[in-house]
Design goal:
With 320 residues, the chain is mainly α. The protein has helices spanning 2-40, 44-69, 73-98, 106-127, 134-154, 172-204, 208-233, 237-262, 271-292, 301-319; strands at residues 101-102, 131-132, 265-266, 298-299. The protein starts with a helix and ends with a helix. The chain crosses the membrane at residues 12-30, 75-98, 110-128, 134-152, 210-233, 245-265, 277-294, 301-319.
Length: 320
Amino acid sequence: MQVPTYHSMQNLLFIVLGLVLLIAGGNWLLKSAVALSLRLNIPKIVIGMTVVSFATSAPELIVSIKSALDGFPDLALGNVVGSNIANLGLVLGITTLLGSIEVQRSFYTTDWPVMMLASLLFFGFIYFDGELVQYEGIIMVGALFLFLVYLLRFQKQAVVDEMPEDDVPLPLWKTMLFLGIGGVALWGGSELLIDGAVGLATVYGVSERVIGVTVVSVGTSIPELAASVIALIKKEKAISLGNLIGSNIFNLLAVLGIASIITPIRVMDQGLLSSDIFWMLGISFMILPLVFIPKGLRLNWRDGLLLVAVYVTFVYFTIT
């Protein structure tokens, strides 16, 4: 029995080290992203929905592309579907437990509908044939591009731009350095995380999908959690909800879009189609009524409790 124990310890160490690198890398990427947007003079909500979302989705992107290329498609799919569930159930849940979020009107006119459309587009592409192929990936990335163009054109007036004290414009060399270090840390972290996750799945005979939907997805959602909690503490609520909704849109359209353009992604474990994808659609839909009930346009601790409870239930059913 010694062998599995040694291997599981080693795999756990890989997972922890990988996560540490992913979080650090995401943080450096975030710093450089905010510095760049200040240099280019882009409004806050747009930064939250685009730059911050893309930076916090970078771990998912790297992990999913690498999993797909290494022949672990379920890890790539499970990671994105699980991350989207974790972003709304766990991350948004914890964030609203810490403090209520006033929701902007753009939430129900743009952000939420686009997230639902992205979720349904992904569902339509993968549910019936169990595969994401190149042309579907191209459509997804194209849809993301149109959304970004729309955001940059029309979202400017949606939120009053607060200039927080800590947004120091960095010198260009520092911005580039953070960008480079962040990228390398993300790459190294993803290598370790995938090796550890696949190793752990093998040792315990658990499917890659279950590891992807639970361990890997929570790991790659940690940057979103960090970014959202920090945004909340600094009273940057425009960034915190925008970042989560934006991340979910990026995860589906950019991460799976780009990964499936590089190599087709096929579902191996049917649990992804019979269970996980419906949890993702359900929790994404749930956010809309929560925002309006009981008081309009806000999320408070009760909503947070409900979201975390839904997430715990999902993990329980996935593992058992």
